[in-house]
Specification:
This protein has eight helices and 16 strands. It is α+β, with helices and mostly antiparallel strands. It has two domains: about 130 residues, Aminopeptidase, CATH 3.40.630; about 180 residues, 3-Layer(aba) Sandwich (Aminopeptidase). The strands form three sheets. The chain has a seven-stranded mixed sheet with strand order 2-4-5-6-7-9-8. A seven-stranded mixed sheet has the order 10-11-12-13-14-16-15, sandwiched between helices. A hairpin with a 4-residue loop joins β5 and β6. α4 runs parallel beside α8 and α5 packs across α6. The protein is globular. The N and C termini lie far apart (about 45 Å).
């Protein structure tokens, strides 16, 4: 039986910046997982943590976020994925497993001590519920100071007070918005590097951004005098008909112009054209601006992921918000 517990104390390395020297890998799960070994098939790009395909499922893991993140679980691959997760835990002492799964698979996870931190109804193809589950492998990873809990609650209270309080969603004079393409890669990476000291994915790397543009993400940017001053992305799961509204960044010199609201409104309209049924975000729990932005656009709060993500220089808790397109 797979054991997911470890009895080591809090990880002192959690808040260190980790060298970006990891690669994408494609895993032949049939032969490789059986022996807990795998061979590197195709190196795409060096990133913070490893992102690996196991069959048609997707797993991210590494020291940067000090976790295993089951990003996508394909039907019929649960045993295969857990065998690989077990192999990872034999090699690395990560302090959290975070899993985004359909509700139909929850019995398997519950039996392995996973608990629910958030859920989104009609997450998969407008029908099946999506669950955000976790297993804490270190006591320190699930610990929150009372002061932090109070701050998160204060952010949520303020965000809820602003629900649907939309004003004019037009850009101020002199600003323009456009969909970004390969020609914007370096400007986009520079903006993200300016805004975020750390980030859970390698958005400072223009090569990574271009790769994601060619695969599942659509980026939008706001310009002022030909300078990229704000951006965001819609990371689509076309098969499941949902999209994560993410990677919002505004140059500090251009805050308080409502640019994130305009970007979110634009992305929603574009995703509706593609028949995407569910919009969601995983927002920094202590960010008044981002939580208020989603509340204003009619998103519903559905839970907090405790000490989940390396962003802006430390591991932070994240709030999940969602909205259905119709």
């Amino acid at each position: 039986m797979l054991c997911l517990r470890r009895d080591k104390g809090p990880c002192s390395h959690r808040f260190l910046k980790i060298s970006r020297s990891i690669t994408f890998r494609n895993i032949n799960s049939q032969s490789c997982l059986a022996s807990c070994k795998y061979s590197e098939i195709n190196v795409i790009i060096k990133i913070h943590d490893t992102v690996e395909k196991i069959g048609r499922s997707l797993v991210q893991h590494g020291r940067y976020n000090d976790r295993i993140y089951l990003m996508k679980l394909h039907g019929g691959e649960t045993d295969k994925v857990f065998e690989y997760i077990g192999a990872l835990l034999q090699k690395h002492s990560y302090s959290k497993i975070f899993a985004k799964i359909p509700s139909e698979a929850q019995k398997f996870f519950r039996e392995k001590n996973f608990v629910k931190e958030a859920e989104i109804p009609r997450f998969y193809n407008g029908h099946s519920k999506g669950l955000f589950l976790c297993n804490y492998l270190s006591p320190g990873r699930k610990y929150q100071k009372e002061q932090t809990k109070t701050k998160i609650n204060n952010v949520l209270t303020m965000a809820r007070k602003k629900a649907l309080s939309l004003h004019n969603l037009t850009l101020p004079a002199g600003f323009s918005l456009e969909r970004l393409d390969d020609s914007h890669g370096k400007k986009l990476a520079a903006l993200y590097k300016k805004v975020f000291p750390t980030y859970p994915f390698p958005i400072y790397d223009s090569e990574y951004l271009l790769q994601s543009m060619r695969e599942t993400s659509v980026y939008f940017g706001v310009f002022f005098e030909n300078k990229l001053v704000a951006a965001s992305s819609a990371e689509m799961d076309v098969e499941a008909e949902n999209v994560e509204m993410t990677d919002f960044a505004t140059d500090p010199d251009f805050n308080k112009n409502g640019l994130s609201l305009v970007l979110l409104d634009t992305m929603e309209h574009e995703m509706k054209k593609l028949n995407i049924k569910t919009f969601y975000t995983i927002a920094r729990s202590l960010s008044y601006g981002m939580n208020i932005t989603f509340s204003k656009r009619g998103y519903t709060y559905s839970g907090t992921l405790i000490n989940n993500t390396n962003i802006s220089g430390k591991i932070e808790s994240m709030n999940v918000w969602y909205k259905h397109s119709c």
